[in-house]
Amino acid sequence: MHTVPVCGPEGPIRAGVAAPAPPAPLRAVLFDFSGTLFQVRAYADRIRAALGRPVGEGEMDDLLGGLERGLTEPAVVAAQQARDVSAAAHRRAFTAWYASVPALVPVAEVLYEQLRAPGHWVPYADTGATLAALRGAGLALGVVSNVGWDLRDTFAHHGVAEYFSCWVHSYEHGTEKPDPALFRSACRELGAGPGETLMVGDHPAADGGAAGAGLRAYVLPAGPSPGGFRGLDAVLRLAGIEERAPG
Questions:
Q1: Nearest to 178, CA basis, from 131, 225, 215
Q2: Which CATH superfamily is 28-37+124-238 part of?
């Protein structure tokens, strides 16, 4: 029976330990949502739309600065705990943050509804082509997201829902990534073993945590502006697909 070798600071202690078997071929790829396949529209644009009036650059700078400062306010920080375990907790967390800026208190709910609206999300420039290439190669695709609402309408609005066979939303399971249960649930739905599945995301702790459930994981670097190229061609290389996703 193969056993995992005991390692010291520099490597295995015992010589002659057999090399581990090569990884199984990929059969499935799981994707995070925000910051991985999509990005929400710029906050300045959303604020102008919510307020319904012109906002000068100086005032906008103050509003955006207020949102930045709000991220460290104790009440806002507390509201983020277990934010994605229910729809109610998700709404509470975001509206508390928006309302940390006095001028945005009257439109905190409007800003939250923007967050849920498919039209306020923008797919990255290489999202569609990458998904098409993966599905064309026969891989099953799923979404695993820490989120407070059903994402299917957003994917459908942008014409990419058809590529996915499963949707694992944290709020529907009462837990958040990196809980292994979410990744394993997606693998079961896709009929692929954890060792045959790759998780792609942008958060080292949440998405990289898939490794704890036996999956392979790829964490993207910080993303570009909405609509820019995300560098998803790296996922094709990891899946052994040589052709580059068309831009």
A1: 215
A2: HAD superfamily/HAD-like (3.40.50.1000)
